[in-house]
Amino acid sequence: MFKTSTLLSMFFLGLVSVYGQDYDFGEVSKSELEEKMHPTDSSAVASVLHEKKRSYFQYIQGKGFSLITEVHKRIKVYNEKGFGYGTEKVYLHENGSDDENLSSLKGYTYNLIDGKIEKTKLSKSDVFSNDESRYWKSETFTFPNLKEGSVIEFKYDISSPFLSNVQEVQVQREIPVDHIEASFEFPEYFYFKPLVKGYYPLDIATSSKSGAINFVNKSRNDGGNYVTKTSYSTQKLDYKINVYSIDLSNISALKEEPFVNNIDNYRASIDYELSYIKFPNSSVEYYSTTWEDVTKKIFDYSDFGNELRKTGYFEQDIDPLIANAPTNEERVNHIFNFVKNKMAWNQNYGYTCHDGVKKAYKESSGNVAEVNLMLTSMLNYAGIEAYPVLVSTRSHGVPLFPTQEGFNYVVSAAKLGDTYVLMDATSKYAIPGVLPTRALNWHGRMIRKDGNSMQIDLMPKSTSKEVVNMLVKIDNQGGAKGKVRGQYYDYNALSYRVNYNQKDGSEIVKDRFEQIEVEECEVKNRGDLHKPIIEQFSFYDENAYDLIADKIYLSPLFFFAMEENPFKLEKREFPIDFSYPREESYMINITIPEGYQVESLPEPMKMVVPDGIGEFSYMIDQNQQILQLRVSLKISSAVISPLYYDAIKQYFSKVVEKENEKIVISHI
What domains are defined for the chain? Predict the structure, then answer.
C-alpha cells in the first residue's frame, strides 16, 4: 500500500472540504419508526434507510497525508430476524507503527414509545476492540435497547496512513437500500481508477473543484549580537480535486441463493485502485499492477520467499520417510500425511508466515502459510517439483483485479507426471488432489522459484460419487423396514468426514433423516482417507407411505427423494457453483406385502441438460412382489454459467417432480 508518514514538500497535495449531509444525524422521523415492513420487499428483516460515505485526502503540516473516510448510516429493523443489523463491525488495517484509527463515533437506537421518539445512546461499554490478525484489528459496536421497529443510526471517521486503502462502497446488500450516496475526492496528481463489481447498473458521476494547501516554512537567521531570530513564511499551492460520486435510491436486495460460492462477489460495489502518482517536476510513479507484479512482490517478502527456502529444521524427520518410497507419488503421500499429523492449524489465514516455519514446526502449530509453505519445502527437498499457490478463499471472494489483498490463503502444488496435484495440509481429512471446500474458488496463482507465476484452476474436474443401495420391505400398516448401504467418494467423502467423523453412526443418520428409527449403524473407513466412506444402517419408518381406502401410495425413494427445487429465482445473473462435479445413484429394492398388487408405476424417464451439463435417469421394474428402482443424477461441471440457469432450474424441477411420484399398490 502507498502511504506517507513524513513532512511532504510544497509539491505534495492535500484537500479540505466540507461534509454536508442531506439526512441530518439525529433527525429520525416518526414515519420511519412507524413503518412495519419495507414498502417494496415485505420479506425484508431490515433495510438501510440512508448511507453516506465520503473519502478524501487531508494534509497535516508536519505529518503528511492521511486518507479520511466519513461514514453515516441509518438502518431500520423490522423484526427479530433483523436484530443482527444492530451490531456493526469495522475492520482497521495496521502494519508496524502505522495503523488506521476510528474516531468521532456516535450512535443511537430510536424507538417509538407511546407516540414519542425515545433514543438510547451508544455508550463506551457497547464498543469492543479486537485483534483479528497480524495486520487487522476491529471495532465492534452493539446497539442497546434494540426492539422490533427500532431505527439505529451511527457515524464515525477513519483516518488511514495507507492512501491506497480506499474503503469499498457496497451498493447492493442482502437487505434493501433506500438511499446511498458516496464520494471519493483526490488531488489531481493522484490518479485512481474506479473498479465496479456486480450486475446492478451504476452511474458514477465525475466532477472537479478547487482546493488549496498552505505550507508554513520556518527558518532561523543570525540577527547579530549573538541573537538568533526565527521567521515564518507561507506558501499556497492551488490544485484541482477530482471527484467520483454516486447517488442512488431504491436498490433491491440481492439475497443468498443456493449454490453460490460467495454472494458478495455479485453484489454491486465500487472500489478504487491507485494507478499512478505524478507530482510537478517529477516522473510518474505507477502503482497499478499485473498479477505477475503482485506475485513477485509477495515472493520477495521475507515471511514468504525466505520461509519457503528454509530446510534445515525438518531433514532428519523427512529422510526416513522418503528412504523407502521409490515413486514420487508415494513420497507425496508420505510427506503430506506427515505434515497433516504433525501440524495443527491455528485457524489463521494469510499467505505470509506469522512466527516462521521453524518455530511453527517446533511447536507443531502454525497458520495456513506456515503449514503449507513447510509442506512445499519438504516436497522440494524430497526431489519433487512443488510450488506454493496463492488462493482467495470462498468467504474472501473472487479476486477480480490484481492486488495483494486479493489473496488470503496458500496451498501447495506438486507436479506428478504432466499434472499438478493440489494439497492443503491444514485439512486433516483431505488427500492429495482434494482441497477443502473453502479453497475451491475458481483460480489461484502458482508462484515459481524465480517469482514468476501462472494461473492454476482450483476447481475439481473428476466426479465425486454417492452410491446408495437399499433393501426395504413395506408392511400393510403404513410402515417400512430396511437396510441401507451408502458409499461416498472423493469430495463427498471429505464432506462426510468433516461433518460427521466426531459423531457415532446413529447420531449421523438421525441428523440427516429425522423421521426414521435407526438400528445397527456402522461407518467404515473414517480414517482410511484413500478409501470411500461406507455407511451401513438398518431403519424403521412408521410413516413410510400413505394408506387410503386399501391403497398404498408410496414414494419409492423414501427419505432420499429431493423435496424441493433449490432454484427459485425467475432470473439469475451469476454462476451456479456446485463446488465439484457430482453423481448420485440409487438402487432400491422394495418388497410389497402379500395380498397386494401394483396398480401403477411411474413412467421411466431420461433427461439431459444442454451441452452435457447434467443428466438424470429414472427406471423402475417389477418382478412379482419385488420392485427395483434405479435413479441416477449427474452434474458434470463444478461451475455453470448463468446462461444455463433456466435449463438447470427446469432440470431440478423435473427431478423433484419425478422423485416424488407415487407407486400405487392396491389390495387384491
Answer: 30-210+243-286 (2.60.40.3140), 291-457 (3.10.620.30), 464-667 (2.60.120.1130)
Whole-number pLDDT of residue 11? 38
Q: Distance (Å, rounded) from C-alpha 614 to C-alpha 599?
A: 32
Task: Find out whether 657 and 562 touch, Cβ atoms under 8 Å.
Answer: no
Q: What is the pLDDT of residues 286-310, one digit of tens each?
A: 886 889 989 999 999 999 999 999 9
What totals of helices (H) and strands (E) does the chain contain, helices first? 10, 37
Q: How far apart are CA 336 and CA 421, in angstroms?
A: 12
Alpha helices in 505-661 (DSSP H): 505-512, 645-659
Residue 224 confidence class, pLDDT cut points 50, 70, 90: low
Give the pairing of strands 582-591 and 626-635. antiparallel
Strands 64-77 and 517-524: unpaired
Cell (9 digits) for 55:
473519502
Q: Is the pLDDT of residue 229 over 70?
A: no
Q: Which of 301, 245, 82, 60 is nearest to 161 (CA)?
A: 60
Q: Tell me how crowded residue 453 is: count the other CB atoms within 10 A of its CB.
A: 24
CA angle (443, 445, 448) in 5-degree steps:
150
Q: With cut-offs at 50, 70 and 90, classify the pLDDT of residue 146.
A: very high
Residue reference for cell 395380498: 595
Q: State the sign of the Cα–Cα–Cα–Cα dihedral 345, 350, 352, 354.
A: negative
Q: What share of the chain is helix, strand, coil (3-state, %, to 5)?
A: 20, 40, 40
Greater confidence (549 vs 214) lies with 549
Collapsing DSSP to helix, strand or coil, 404 comes out as helix
The three three-digit cell numbers of residue 154, written as one number: 451511527
> Would you tell me the crossing angle of helices 315-323 and 368-381 to the nearest 10 degrees?
50
Residue 627 near residue 616, CB atoms below 8 Å = no
CA distance 327 to 417: 11
Q: Burial of 74 by CB count in 10 Å (0-12 exposed, 13-18 middle, 19+ buried)?
A: buried
DSSP summary character for residue 126: G
* Residue 362: CB atoms within 10 Å: 12
So what's the pLDDT on residue 135? 80
pLDDT value at 632 more than 60: yes
